[in-house]
Structures are given as C-alpha cells and as structure tokens.
User: Fold these one by one.
Assistant:
Number 1:
Amino acid sequence: MAQVKLGILGAGGIAKVHTAILQQDERVEIIGVADVVAAKAAALAKEIGTAKAVGSLDDLFALGVDAVYVTTPNTLHVQPVLQCLKHNVHVFSEKPMATSLAEAEQIRQAAAASPAIYNLGMNRRFASVYKRVKELLASGEVVPYLAQIKMNRGELLHPAWTSDPQVTGGFLYETPFHLMDLSRYLFGEVRSVLCEARQNLSPSELDTFAITLTFEAGTIATFVTYAHAGWSFPFESLEVYGKYSTIATQELEKVMYAPGLQQAALVHDFFQLPSAEKWGYVEEDRLFIDAIVNGTEPPVTAEDGFRSLRLLEAIYESATTGKKVNLSKTMEGKAAW
Ligand SMILES: NC(=O)c1ccc[n+]([C@@H]2O[C@H](COP(=O)([O-])OP(=O)(O)OC[C@H]3O[C@@H](n4cnc5c(N)ncnc54)[C@H](O)[C@@H]3O)[C@@H](O)[C@H]2O)c1
C-alpha cells in the first residue's frame, strides 16, 4: 500500500506536470483532485485513474489525504497552505510562497508550529544546468566575483491571469521570482538591493526592471527582467565570472564552463533529458516525498521561502522609493574571500 495519500488543489498546467511525476513514485497514491471548475478536476482525475474529482480543500481533507499540492494561481496559495498546516497535512506549495511578506510570515510561523512539512516548489534549484553551476560554486572551483542574471517573459497572455496583478501579486511574483530565489541559493544572502523600474506595456503594473544585488559573501550581480520580450531565446540566462573563468547558462538547456586562460571550455548540453527532469520537477517532487516518508529536511523550507520573498519585496521597495534597500547589517563591506 502507498505510504502517502495525496491530493491536488488546482487542476491546471503545473498540476499535470507534478501528477505525471508523482504517479511514477510507488510511495504515492493520488486519491483526490480538487478544482473550482468541476470539469478540470474531473479531467485530471480521469487521467490519473486513482483519484476522485472534488470541489474544495475540505473535500480533499474528507478523503483522508496525508499531503496536498497547492497548484492554484499565486494569490490563492496562502489560505490553503495555512489550512493544511492547521490540519497537520503536509503541503507542497507552488511558487510564490505568498504575495506579501506579512502572509509569508504567517506561513513561516504556522510551519514552525505544525508537525506537518511545508515545502515551496522552487524547481530551478534542481534543474540540470543550475545543479552544475551550484557544484562549481560550492566546490570552490569558481569564486563568483560578478554575475549577470536575465529572466524575461515573452508575454503576460497565457494563462490570462498572469497579466492581472490582483492574481499574480505583481510581475516579480511570476517567473522572475525563480531566479531571485536561485540567486540566494547560489550566492548566499543578499545584503542590499538597488532597482530602477518602469511601467511600459502593462496597463497596471511595473514590467521593466534593472536590479543591482550585493551579496553578503561579496558577489555583486545585475539582474534584468522584462515581461513582454516575446520569448527570444534564451529568455533565461546566468553568467558568473571568477578568476579567468566564466560559467554561462542558456535557458535550462546548456551550461558552458570556461575554467581558465588557454584551457578548453566544457559544455554540458541537457537537450536529451526529459523536460520534467531537466527543469528540476522530478527531483523536487522526490525530495518532498522523501521528507514525508524518511523525515529528511524538505528541499525548500518556509524559512528559506520567506527569505526569497523578502528579497523580492526589497526589490519592489527600491523600485518605488528609488533608494537602496539594506537587507542585512552583517559583514558590512567585507567579502568572504
Ligand atoms: N514552478 C514552476 O515552474 C511553475 C510553472 C507554472 C506555474 N507555476 C505556479 O503554479 C500555479 C498554477 O499555475 P498554472 O500555470 O498551473 O495555472 P492554471 O491556470 O493552469 O491552473 C490553476 C488551476 O487552479 C484552479 N483554481 C483557481 N482557484 C481555485 C480554488 N480556489 N480552488 C481550487 N482550484 C482553483 C483553476 O481553475 C485552474 O484549474 C501558479 O501559482 C504558478 O505561479 C509554477
């Protein structure tokens, strides 16, 4: 018998990605799918085979779920997550954690008080290209003096709610949040943030950002993100510069490492991998189920998610005040190397 009876809240695009992976895990049985649109719950439940289609989180609780994936639109993550933690039901929340720091703080406190596991779905950390970058940095092979980060979106048309800041929380809570979280994961905590932003094509929000990040360990980085770039490849990239060395990623496909002067560069190209693996979803799902079954640390805790959200809000604060925002007073002016 499966060890984890699982429910899905929100039967949309990303739910399909997770359920296809979780169905392969023999420790898991997906027993329920809930959606406000009955036809969507029914269609996904049918695809899964073992799941009952229902209408709400309470219905999933009534089925006796041990864990829930919250895969509803952005502003609809917090309440179900809090309900799960209150009912001691493990919860995997899609990103973003919340769309305000006050709500993220509520989750942080609820997760600390609950015996249930909270995990935030930051799949980029487990994407093949970024695992390679992490290896090069964590081993000390590359000391990251400078980085250049780009995370554009092509449009805010699909799904339609991505253009509505009442539902997304704002453009930065959409795709750009992935690389904000990733920048902390790779370079450590951010000391300060300075951002210039504009509202160019979006009717009601900032959509164009040029950000400077200063990390406590000494790395400095630029981060640009624009909402309407038309999916020009690569819309997501990271370059890291060390001592005569460069790491450069292209999308979630390829990473080039040039280790030094007069040395051949090494290229890892992941184009053959299935996208669910290449994009990090397979590993993040496995680690969440491991945490439930084996009692290991979940891959992205509430504390970790809170810190990434604090960074995002500091960027908005700098964009609106025009001032540099200090996130930490520690290690003033000193690099770790
Ligand atoms: N980690 C990633 O790479 C990644 C990728 C895509 C989406 N996401 C995140 O996942 C979430 C969902 O995105 P999506 O693209 O699957 O959206 P989607 O619109 O395809 O699916 C959302 C589903 O939630 C349902 N829903 C809305 N309100 C509900 C409620 N109160 N109760 C139950 N169901 C409800 C909708 O009917 C819809 O079926 C978003 O927060 C998004 O940011 C993450």
Number 2:
Amino acid sequence: MVGLVAKVGLIGCGQISGKYLENAKRFEGFDVVAVADARLEAAQARAAEYGVPRALSVDDLLADPEVEIVINLTPHRAHYDVARRVLEAGKHPYSEKPLTIYRDDARWLLAMAGEKGLRVGAAPDTFFGGAWQTARKLIDSGAIGEPVGALANLHARPPSRPAPKDGEYVSFYMTDFLEYGGSWAFDRGPYYLHALINLLGPVARVTGSARKTWEQRERGGRVLPVNAPTHVSGILDFANGAVCQFLMTADVYATGLPHVEVYGTEGSLRCIDPNNFGGTLFLRKADSADLHPVEPEFGYTGNSRGVGVADLAAALRSGRPHRANGEMGCHVVDIVNAIHESSAEDCHVRLETTCERPAPLPPGLADWTIDP
Ligand SMILES: NC(=O)c1ccc[n+]([C@@H]2O[C@H](COP(=O)([O-])OP(=O)(O)OC[C@H]3O[C@@H](n4cnc5c(N)ncnc54)[C@H](O)[C@@H]3O)[C@@H](O)[C@H]2O)c1
C-alpha cells in the first residue's frame, strides 16, 4: 500500500531519465522525490533541471524512508543488481527493459518480491498507448477472427556516432551493444514482445536462429569485437495457437518502418512501431483487399513513458494487479534467451515461464490519469 501520491525514487540519470522526469510532473498519483546515479553529478544535474528535491548516492536513495517505488533506468547489465537492492531495501522496483538479461535472475527477483510482499514493475509501457489499446479491442472483438499468426520486425543498422570527447559519459548503447544482453533482441525486442503478449497472450514454445554478420564493428569511433548475435530471428508459438515470426536485426538495411502485424481467420491488422504509443492502424477484412486506416480510440497517443509507474502506484493503493508487471518482464526475458538457446543448441525450447495478458485500459481514460 502506498500513499495517495506515491513517493518515487529514480536510479540512473542518463538519456531516458529526462523523459521520465518530464512526464512524472504530469501524472497524477506519483511524485519523484529523489534521484541517484553512480555518477552523482548526473543525478545533481537532473535534479536541478526537473526540480527534484534530493540528488543522492544510490545507497542513500535506497535508505530514504520516504521512497516507496524505485524506477531503475540503469544499463541492462545493472538492472538485476539494482532491482535486487531495491527489494532488499523493502521498496518496489520498476525497471526499464529488459527486466534482467538472464531468466534465472528475473525469476529470483519475482521470488524475492513474493517473499517480501513487494511488487516488481517491468517496462516497456508502450502497450498502454492508444494504438495498442485499440488493436487489443479490435482483436478481442473478433475484427480479424481467430488469430493465426503475427510478424514482428525491426531492421535497424545503428548509425555511426563520433568518438566521445575526453571525460564525456559514454552511453551503454556504445559499450554493450555487441555483448550478450545489449543487442536489439534484448533492447528493442521487449517492445515487440510486450505488444504481442498484450494482443495474443503468452508464448509456449520458441525456435530460434541467430547470427553475427561481422566479427568486428564500429561503435562510437572505435572498432570493437562482436561478442553476441546481432541478427536474431525466432518463431514464437503462442499458447493460443498463433505462430509469430520475430526478427530483431542490426545487420541489414531497412526496407520499411518497424512494425507488428497480426493475421486472423477473418482479416489482418497492421500495427505501429511498438516503440510508440500512438499512430494509425490498418485493418484488412476478408471481403476487400483494401487496408482501412483505424485511428486510436483511446488516449495516451504521445510519448507517455512512466504510465506503467502510475499504474503500479494505483495498483498498490487498490490491491489490483499492475499491468507492466514482473511476470510479463520475466516471460519476455525467457523468450529472448530461448531464441538464442534454440539457435545454439539446435532445438525447440518449451518455455517454463508464462504470464497473464494485462487488463485493457478502460475507455475514456484521460491522459496522465489511470484507473484505480
Ligand atoms: N535511451 C532511450 O531512448 C531509452 C528509451 C527507453 C528505455 N531505455 C532504457 O533505459 C535504460 C537506460 O537507458 P539510457 O539510454 O538512459 O542509458 P544511459 O547510458 O544514457 O544512462 C545510464 C545511466 O545509469 C548510470 N549507471 C550505470 N550503472 C549504474 C549503477 N549500477 N547504479 C547507478 N547508476 C548507474 C550511468 O551513470 C548513466 O547515467 C536502459 O535500460 C534502456 O534500455 C532507454
């Protein structure tokens, strides 16, 4: 149970923290009262920019008795350790994607939270977006009939960036992208997988094939070894029977925008880039070859990162489940690892984790608010 306005701390004051802190001022139901970073000067700069009362060391933020929920915006490889420490401090962690790199770490967080009566939140929360809620309503109302399959693809060669100047902070995207846990499969994959789980439910079986196209690649002015696959492809058998082709690649040139498509017995639905909240959907019905544009019927069509935190705060107050939850984050980590394992071990992988579809948002919900 948290107070009427939940008191939130934020760890990791890098690039995306600005958007969270900007949006936090708009959401009802939570206030950011403290920020922290391994680089205290980064926390101090963000606190000054967004009027956050306290810029602290990580230890001091975790010991702050006012803080109830902690947003974890550290690099992927730090997610587990920071979330574990948040739980040890008796607070609820809400981590950016991926929840962890390895599935056992994710399961451990859930077990620890269960023992302590705490919640685990897991971004992305783009599936709260108006386009995704509209897609969910269309699918649930039978607009495409029974789901048969889906396609989820991201073709994105990362742009070359100049070498950092002396003393300049280097984003983890520069250092970790060619390591296991840093590629698009772990970084962007969760957007696609949370979107698909919202539409279709959990995955039961995974088959994968993954490769690296180069032994070395240029990142931020340096040539680095490629230590993990950067072209990652999977077939996901959903528990409801739908079969999805999933491709996250940094190795090819894009021929179109990233998107998700869902195919059913009575029609097909072309959805938006799952990194976004809003945009036009295109529905094709069985009786016509035309694609009919469908505009979002729900709010949250702009960049509303943080709505998952608002939802967690409301859920803690009322006792209902929160939507961007640790079970879904853990299942997504399991899926991405299973694709790599299937590829390396030449086999299908039947998943041991699962999750519920998050509850749809109520119609008419105003931006920056959430249902109790
Ligand atoms: N950049 C984006 O557009 C974006 C969008 C959505 C989500 N995300 C996610 O947000 C997270 C952060 O991304 P970013 O782009 O802001 O990264 P970043 O590299 O810009 O910032 C990471 C920050 O974490 C700090 N840090 C590193 N290890 C730490 C630790 N152990 N304890 C405390 N602080 C630590 C660093 O000093 C840095 O300030 C990632 O999980 C990423 O997947 C990023």
